[in-house]
UniProtKB/TrEMBL annotation:
PANTHER family in UniProt: ENOYL-COA HYDRATASE (PTHR42964), POLYKETIDE BIOSYNTHESIS ENOYL-COA HYDRATASE PKSH-RELATED (PTHR42964:SF1)
Taxonomic placement: Bacteria, Pseudomonadati, Pseudomonadota, Gammaproteobacteria, Pseudomonadales
Name of the featured protein: Enoyl-CoA hydratase-related protein
Family of this protein: Belongs to the enoyl-CoA hydratase/isomerase family.
Originating organism: Pseudomonas idahonensis
Length: 265
């Protein structure tokens, strides 16, 4: 198996079937630079077909998740005109698409600033765990900009009504409000409780078969915009393959034998 990519803006730590990815630009509250976007996309591509990596944990260094886009990159694009801004913006949208579609379970651990692009990353997670003091928001309109790439993912996550309010007021809010909106699944009082919740959720993920999780995630995402009849036809085909596949056979045999399946041992 090829080694993981070498990164300058990310820390990578594979451990017990989980890849821990830390955004590592603490001096800028982990603002999302073009280099960081490119490195994240490279890592996602590198692990996409690795069933030995069953979950990805994305978090930030220095007490912050991600404060949004890097203004230095935007300043650098100014000399190259609107095409450079378009390329810069669309690259982050591609990252969000790829993160949303990754076969692994994506867990976001949210502390400190969860703004702009960081907010978008939270919206494509499968499991989001926040510290109560985290600060969420989409500040773009207050800067004369728009949340161009994250907006569709925000609408999918929390609905159009709330997305309109939050984007058109550039509102800031804490973990409790994020839980109320359905943006996050858990809010914890302090870093220790945050780590305990993370370990609990990872232990539950690792009880599930990786192939079944990947297929289930794809089915759930497809249910958002695909016609129901064809979707159910494809789901039936996927189910038949699962029942007769290695995971299905092992899972049902383990149940009959009253033992853990191989992937959960």
């Amino acid at each position: 198996m090829s080694p993981l990519p070498t990164c300058q803006t990310l820390l990578l730590e594979p451990r017990n079937g989980v890849l821990f990815i830390t955004l590592n630009r603490p001096e800028s509250r982990n603002a999302m630079s073009l280099q960081m976007v490119a490195e994240l996309r490279t890592v996602l591509a590198a692990v996409r077909d690795r069933r030995s990596i069953r979950a990805l944990v994305l978090r930030g260094a220095g007490g912050h998740f991600c404060a949004g886009g890097d203004l230095k990159d935007m300043a650098g694009a100014r000399t190259r005109g609107s095409a450079a801004y378009r390329e810069l913006n669309r690259a982050f949208g591609a990252l969000l698409e790829e993160a949303q579609q990754t076969p692994q379970v994506l867990v976001c651990v949210l502390q400190g600033a969860v703004l702009g692009g960081g907010f978008g990353l939270a919206c494509v997670s499968d499991i989001a765990i926040a510290e109560h003091s985290a600060q969420f928001g989409m500040p773009e309109t207050g800067l004369g900009l728009l949340p161009a790439q994250i907006a569709p993912f925000v609408v999918q996550r929390i609905g159009l009504t709330q997305a309109r309010r939050l984007t058109l007021t550039a509102a800031r809010f804490d973990g409790a409000e994020a839980l109320h909106l359905g943006l996050v699944h858990f809010v914890e009082a302090d870093p220790r409780a945050l780590e305990e919740r993370l370990e609990q959720q990872l232990s539950q993920v690792l009880r599930c078969a990786p192939g079944a999780n990947a297929a289930t995630k794809a089915l759930l995402l497809a249910s958002v915009d695909q016609p129901l009849g064809p979707l159910l036809d494809q789901a039936a085909e996927d189910f038949a393959q699962a029942v007769t596949g290695a995971e299905g056979l092992e899972g049902t045999l383990a149940f009959v034998q009253k033992r853990k399946p191989a992937w959960a041992s």
